[in-house]
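In the current project phase, work has continued on tokenised descriptions of protein folds. One protein thus recorded appears below exactly as we store it.

——
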Amino acid sequence: MLNKPKRLLCSWQEFANITPKQLQESREQNNGKIVLKGILQKADTLNQNGRIYPKNILEREIDNYQKYILEHRATGQLDHPDDSVVALKEISHNIIKTWWEGNVVWGMLEVLHTPNGNILQQLLEDGIKLGISSRGVGSTEKDGDYSIVQDDFQLICWDMVNEPSTPGAFMLPEHAAYMPEGKELKLNDAFYENNQRVLPPPRAYQSTVDLLLSLRQGK
């Protein structure tokens, strides 16, 4: 049997709006660093890219990812690149902890003092709602109207993005309580879990950096 071709797979999660007060409190409680927490990924759930990540595969990859967390190199970029490389000059944050709650992968990340980390910090301070998205390589198999991620999947990192593909993937300051978006979030999850028509998220901007530049130019 021929091996299926691997391709870049991304899965979008939404972050919550963060107030300047919450950012300041995060700095005060984390030695001057901005530390965020939120949903990173959902297993056995249809995402906005029309894919399902089986839990056994995600569990394996989350376990493998702990090595990078322990070595303090679980870094991610601001926006997804077109390849599987985590470029040091592009990193903006570092994942410091992950854990499971049912089929949901939660995580904590710290914003780094890098050029892209500074852009990320400015976006947060300006109240821009951001998302987080996993990046990995692997193959998929079609199953009706959606695709199942296969056993050859390899998780690379999580990037900060403008629009997530996993329902409800928004981050909060580490000290804040997680507040899901109530009825809107529940309807969203039910929509995807019922395998109804998958609609792509609206894209007003091509990237987070484009969004920041547009804000600075007053567009």
In short: DSSP finds five helices and eleven strands in the chain.
